[in-house]
Amino acid sequence: MKLEKPTAIPTEELINALQCYGVRLIDPKAGTESRRGGAGPSDHKAITVDGMTVMVPVHTAPAFDSPYWVDKPDASGRSRLTREGATLGEISFPTRPRFYDLRTADGIPYSQIALLHGRDVLATTVLQTCIRYQSRSKACQFCAIGQSLAAGRTIKRKTPAQLAEVAAAAVALDGVTHMVMTTGTPPGPDRGAAILAESAAAVKAAVDLPIQAQCEPPDDAAWFVRLRDAGVDALGMHLEAVTPQVRHRVMPGKAQVSIERYFEAFAAAVPVFGRGQVSTYILAGLGDPPGAILRTCERLIDLGVYPFVVPFVPIAGTPLESHAAPSPSDVHEILKPLAAMLTKSGLAAVTIKAGCGKCGACSSLSTYERSLRDDLRAVQTVPTQ
Ligand code: SF4
Q1: What is the mean pLDDT of residues 246-258?
Q2: 55 Cα nearest atom in ligand 1
Q3: What is the largest CA-CA distance in the chain?
Q4: 167: helix, coil or strand?
Q5: CA angle 144, 241, 344 (to 5 degrees)
Q6: Which of 75, 176, 305, 339 is within CB 3.0–4.6 Å of 368 for a Cys-Cys bond?
Q7: Is the CB of 130 within 6 Å of ligand 1?
Q8: Nearest-CA residue for atom 4 of ligand 1
Q9: pLDDT tens track for 48-104
């Protein structure tokens, strides 16, 4: 039976609401294990809404008060989504990946080396420590990279051999189609590019899996060629915030790397990886005005960089855990025109080879793009009189 599309609300707007408010699960064990702590967005769980698998907060402060509830799933993994008692429709949960049941020869669970993100993405944080995370005055205030390590849910450094072993299993057992390799920033001018390159080379030698690497801009643009030659297909260098005030407030250490330095690095990376294969992550809801985010996105798109704008999730245990999440209308105000800008420029989530922009689960941006494509197709197929 095909899943019904929940409600008459456009899917992208429903996803915005679920990602901004979070959901309350009647059965907290529903679906795959939720992600807690770690680099990037966290405290959420993958659910599938109208064919789009998205990450929805379940452990954040807003989620505990969310008006959206998800019933206990039936035997096939389907659940009823309700808002204040009214049924909105049906959602489903991706099944638990089989590679989670395996361990390395030295006894490390594969799930401590890499996780399934979204529906079919293998994601790992190669180095689970960061020069910026050591002190509160430098750490990015939204980041929880140390939490999963402190809780024993991951290991500090994933070796190339471990990553290759897990990637091969995740492809064979669970059909993952691309891989995200991020890293905490190590000391040294390459900003993590060297460990990402050796990790990508090992994975590519074991299995044919498109890889996105994510790091801060390395000192030397030659690293982009080295990463590509090692097997990296797409690159993410994440701005996170776009105005100087917000950057200094929420990421006092990383803000030392100026926006202009990022733009220099983008300009050097796009010719190496190709138009649309370099991306950046921007968090909506930290204080950057929507107009400032859209102006930065316009500049990025002109360079051939895909701006992946994601609603900010206030992760428990971080300095921003009590910061408000953005409202769904704030997110809509950015993502709707952004999807139109992307479509006009020819950049699209679906043509990215690997990574967060392609996965799209932390934002409804790719759903806005899908709706625009559907609208265009509908216009093109209207019979002429
Ligand atoms: S968008 Fe990136 S961080 Fe979010 S679930 Fe997908 S791979 Fe993970």
Answers
A1: 95
A2: 5
A3: 70
A4: helix
A5: 120
A6: 339
A7: no
A8: 362
A9: 999 999 999 988 888 888 999 999 988 888 999 999 889 998 999 888 999 999 999
Nearest to 178 by CA among 355, 314, 378: 355
Bridge-based pairing state of the strands 115-117 and 24-25: unpaired
Whether 315 contacts 42, CB under 8 Å: yes
Q: Quick check: helix, strand or coil at residue 240? A: strand
Return the structure tokens found at 356. Answer: 């967060």
Query: Whose CA is closest to 81, among 33, 15, 1, 34?
Result: 15
Q: Is 313 in the pocket of ligand 1 (CB under 6 A)?
A: no
Tokens 């105005």 found at: 243
Strand order in the sheet with 44-49: 24-25, 68-70, 78-83, 86-92, 44-49, 52-57
Phi and psi angles of residue 92, each rounded to the nearest 5 degrees, phi first: -140, 165
Backbone angles phi, psi at 179, to 5 degrees: -135, 140
Distance in angstroms between the alpha carbons of the first and the last residue of the chain? 37
Q: Among candidates 4, 127, 59, 94, which has minimal Cα distance to 318?
A: 59
Q: Which two tokens stand for residue 8?
A: 């008459």
pTM over 0.85: yes
